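[INFO] parsing input record for BCCT family transporter
[DEBUG] input buffer:
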Amino acid sequence: MKIMQNSEQKSNSEKERLDFGISGIPLLAILLMCFFFFRFPENSNRGLSAIRSFLGSEFAVYYLGLGLFIFLLSLFIAFSPYGTIVLGKPDEKPAYSFFTWGSMMFTAGLAADILFYSLCEWILYVREPYIQSLGNAEEWATVYTLFHWGFIPWGFYLVLAAAFGFMLHVRKRKRQRYSEACRSILKEKTDGILGRGIDLLAVFALLAGTATTFSVATPLMAEIIRKVLPGFSTVSLTILILVITCVVYTYSLLKGMAGISLLAKTCTWLFYSLLFYVFFFGGAGNFILKHGFSAFGKMVEHFPSMATYTDALGENHFPENWTIFYWAYWMVWCVASPFFIGSISKGRTIRQTILGGYVFGVGSTFVSFLVLGNYSLSLELFHRVPILSIYEKTQSLYEVIVQALEALPLAPLVLALLFLTMLAFYATSFDSIALVASQYSYKNLEEGEEPNKKVQGFWAVLLILLPLALVFSESSMANLQSVSIIAAFPIGFIILLISFSFLKDAKAYLKELEKRKTGNSEEEAGKE
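[DEBUG] output buffer:
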């Protein structure tokens, strides 16, 4: 009897700690979106495109300026006195080794779409009028792949990771939400309607970002399976993959941080094994090195002009179609990934977190694009596989990627390795996202305390609903991009608010440390 009463009391206590509004309102919004995608796919896509076009053209400076500002801010924070702050106690040691920490950060920050875009993004750029106007289209296509996946996108993650890590491990805040990171500026308004609105926007943006990611790359996995099971449609296989992925990342999530870190390290080893094989056995190793080195140099040389190009006369819409989309794409992921990076960075200084993030995160991203992208580009340039002709004929990037990989020795094994790596990327990204989202559901949560398994399971399922709707509606790439651009618009303002709030709070903390040191010095002098 006592056991039953204790169980009921524990259950009631857990319910009292949950914020059903944070979970329920986004759930209703997503279900509503799912209904419209299912019921009115054409009208839904048309509406998304109209809103996306307006934001991309009228607010180009907002998106691009924000990206450049956050990148420069990350460097300022890293090399200023703020960079010396330890995320935890002043003498605390890192919770994870550099490889484990880097693996969790990299795989949480980038889902399987990195492999999809690494293999084919240059194809999307090379026929763009703007890229062709720059000169060597193939080289500039590679330059822009590095730019769109490099320092500015990771800057979004790392500035917020520093802010969230400071909030969690230094200030020991119990509300693990976006609004809590704004407390030093918003003060008591954090607990009111304004703070609640910030959190609801953050959760909705999170769901939109995960939907975009899932819907972009899963058809490639389906295309790989179709080589083995040709009788099944791409849509049915994509749905099967989404369900399997959901099962895998839910299982990992319920195993806690041990399961997440193990899956992240496994994913990293699979990822580098794939790159190693393509580099050494793809017959293009020398070209990959030379072309990649040249493209990296050109990206660094032209970085300021690329970061500020707005197409003011509306001649080509390149920044609207691509650069703005990518900044928005990363901004919506900023709701979860930086929280996770900040939480696993306990014991590291802010400087180590930012610079280490650039080394492992940007470094691994560049290696992926340079190896896989330049491999598929070499097939076109050296007339081994007519990549562009295949794309023009099929209009399917998924088919192009499969044919490019089939040019490798032991192609079936390579395709199997790619499939497993993509599955691992999805699982490692979404188990960390589901963990952060479930933390959002609590009114307060102690440092190191994990959410209830049922709450984690709820979010694991919720994250899969919108991707399924987008697959059923057969949304185009442009419409998938629109989801991110629209969701990112309000998130940009919140990112700025969090950044300035962090600077204010960190400045106050440094003064507190200085006072403690001065006080201790005076005490020691008095004793002498």
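[INFO] Residues 26-510 form a domain with the Amino acid/polyamine transporter I fold (CATH 1.20.1740).
[INFO] shutting down worker
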